[in-house]
């Protein structure tokens, strides 16, 4: 068995194994497959450069693709979020989402579309992220850094609405998500935009910092 700082602890594996619910005997340990995937994500190494004490990289990649396509990774994330919300005496499903974006540089060998973020002066990829008020990740969408926030939300909102239909009452955004295109997109989703420049109600944000001005609340 491999021994790296990135490996799952026994309690973390028990949590993951319960969701996986697969007791079949296999030639490779699914725990070691998980450890290899986490190692790769944390270190950024290539698939073929995974250390030899992990299962062969092709086996690791097979399970990565399988779990990505069948929604298993998302199920693990959702279960973790619900557990965290329960610990904080919150409802299982959030009523408020907070959206923001981040552009990051990528290696020149990146096989996906890259672009230039003129605002951040970064060439690479951009991720749009929605969290709840605890900071739990609810949704992430990655594309070229050239995609402006007001255009990226056109892809994010329908996915978010589908996943949390019925529970979300508001999405908090900064000024990057303003303008007529985003207003039109929000209206298409049956919502409206309200601009708030004096801070937000503590009962609405409950623990979210108020350093961003102005806020745009998508109801």
From TrEMBL:
What sequence ranges are listed for the domain Insertion element IS402-like? 8-76
Q: Where is the Transposase IS4-like domain?
A: 94-190
GO molecular function, a single term: DNA binding
Matching InterPro entries = IS402-like_dom, Transposase_11
Please, one GO biological process term? DNA transposition
Family annotation (NCBIfam families): transpos_IS5_3 (NF033580)
The molecule here is called Uncharacterized protein
Q: What is the lineage of its organism?
A: unclassified sequences, metagenomes, organismal metagenomes
């Amino acid at each position: 068995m491999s021994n790296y700082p990135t490996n799952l602890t026994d309690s973390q594996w028990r949590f993951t194994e319960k969701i996986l619910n697969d007791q079949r005997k296999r030639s490779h340990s699914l725990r070691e497959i998980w450890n290899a995937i986490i190692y790769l994500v944390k270190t950024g190494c290539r698939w073929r450069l995974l250390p030899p004490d992990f299962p062969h990289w092709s086996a690791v990649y097979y399970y990565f693709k399988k779990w990505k396509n069948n929604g298993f990774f998302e199920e693990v994330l959702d279960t973790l979020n619900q557990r965290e919300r329960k610990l904080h005496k919150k409802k299982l499903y959030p009523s408020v989402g907070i959206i923001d974006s981040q552009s990051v540089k990528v290696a020149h060998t990146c096989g996906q579309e890259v672009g230039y973020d003129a605002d951040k002066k970064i060439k690479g990829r951009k991720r749009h992220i929605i969290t709840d008020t605890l900071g739990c990740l609810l949704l992430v969408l990655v594309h070229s850094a050239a995609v402006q926030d007001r255009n990226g939300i056109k892809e994010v909102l329908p996915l978010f609405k589908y996943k949390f239909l019925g529970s979300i009452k508001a999405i908090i955004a900064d000024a990057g998500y303003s303008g007529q295109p985003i207003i039109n997109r929000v209206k298409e989703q049956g919502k409206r935009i309200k601009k708030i420049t004096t801070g937000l109600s503590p009962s609405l944000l409950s623990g979210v910092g108020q350093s961003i001005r102005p806020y745009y609340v998508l109801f």
